[in-house]
Amino acid sequence: MSVPNAAATEDLSSEMEVDAFRRLFPLRYFERHLAESIRSDGRPLREARDTSIFLGAVASANGSALVKIGSTTMLTAIKMEVMIPSLESPDEGCLAIDFHMPPICSPIVRPGRPAEAEPVVSKQLSDTITSSGMIDLRELSLVGGKAAWMAYLDIYCLDADGSLFDAALLSAVAALSHLQIPAVAMNDDGKIVLMSDEDGQKQAKEQVNKEKRKLTLKSIPLSLTCILHKNYILADPTAEEESIVETHVTIILDTSGQLISLYKPGGPVLAYTSAIQDCVALTRQRVKELKSFLDKENSAMEVE
Amino acid sequence: MAGKSGTTPATYSPSLTTGKKKPLLLKEEDWTRPDGRGFHQCRPAFFRTGAVNAASGSAYAEFGNTKVIVSVFGPRESKKAMMYSDTGRLNCNVSYTTFSTPVRGQGSDHKEYSSMLHKALEGAIILDSFPKTTVDVFALVLESSGSDLPVVISVASLALADAGILMYDLVASVSVSCLGKNLVIDPIFEEENSQDGSLMITCMPSRYEITQLTVTGEWSTPKINEGMQLCLDACAKLAKIMRSCLKESASDAQDESS
Q1: pLDDT of residue B80
Q2: How far apart are CA A172 and CA A125, in angstroms?
Q3: B residues 216-255 near A, CB within 8 Å?
Q4: Is the ipTM of this complex over 0.85?
Q5: DSSP B86
Q6: Which domains, from first to last, does chain A contain?
Q7: Interface check B18 vs A, CB under 8 A
């Protein structure tokens, strides 16, 4: 960035309109807020944005969730299909996680030119969910060696305004908690078919999964992204803040407070142990908050 | 999209009952529509503008189970490779989510709809108002359950209005399906699958001008006239709903600023 010198912009700021100053000198605009211990959207430095979870947003899916953190919006749906399990793991199903950033979500994504963040977040999500041990893949088995569930988990970013990984992980976890595995039977040809209520009486079919059931989620991974700038720590950055500050720390904890992973992909600020500890403490708080949102939504679903 | 098994490992979604399929729609006089609507009754439409904050303008709509979101970006710099142009350019793209259809799809771009959307909107936009630049209109079909293209077109015009792009009028679009002797308006997926013909009109209702008209299948002249009149009437009503949605969001914005 080519700021002529600090004194000059200082003077300009009193003459210029706020919006113009914000666009021309984003860093100075950002730092002026930090000096007052406030952020441009009016938040305290270490506070996350308002978060909402809505389960069952996609009617045609087996499990789905719509999550909003500030303006960042994620829609996740899980579709269950049947596959023949591989020889190495005949008693296990499979979970395929895909993160999509369609062109609608951000001005930087164009059709045919996927965003850089797309494969990165996709990989981080599958790593996190598989390594957290949240799901026992044996629960997705139907008939050992013959049939198992393939759960396609697709996350769509509908509005990208920073902290994409946090929102994507929360929506993936919410959709998994909402997932209902359909009741199925195996017919004479060895094909899995859905059972409707009338079919329940028929004895000819071998029932594989008698009732709709939910997955048991052992430990739930949740995360918080912070950005580090000088000595400041800012939780849950917006897209504007992410574009100004390049040092990110993403911490993923499970609900019992155990560390699952920690990403600090480079950046100009070297994080001291104390900064990392502060981030972990913030994440611990945030995870508790998110867990209570998630529990509230799930118990509301059960009442219905 | 069904039956494509290029992905590894091969998976299939379990059907309700193998062998016997659900009986196809009857084409007799006393037949009722699967969702219980009258033949000439549209699904209830819900519109909301400002769905995507990252975009210059956006809109979301629900027609029954068809759910669509459209973002508009720009006017912004045209691609470097583009020739100089005195008038603005319009760039459209329509894509589907992988879970939009009953059987999981690939979630790819829909080239045909993209170009249809472009042609449907082009005539309504005052392109001279943004020379040398491009306006991008991107649509994502979140859930598809029939009449996707007409819904995408209507929502896109609302999103353009939300972005403040100058237009001659809002663009509303409605289709009818011909099923035997009957004409059904705003068909759902099952009806589209067993239709004999379809007719779609995209128009600017206050100017009484049509920007796009497509007719496929077998039609008699009186049927075409009937279908066109049905669509035009429905478009006028749809545009009213869209206009009231715009007014609402404008008055909300005013309340906030005052």
Answers
A1: 75
A2: 9
A3: none
A4: yes
A5: S
A6: 51-179+215-303 (3.30.230.70)
A7: yes
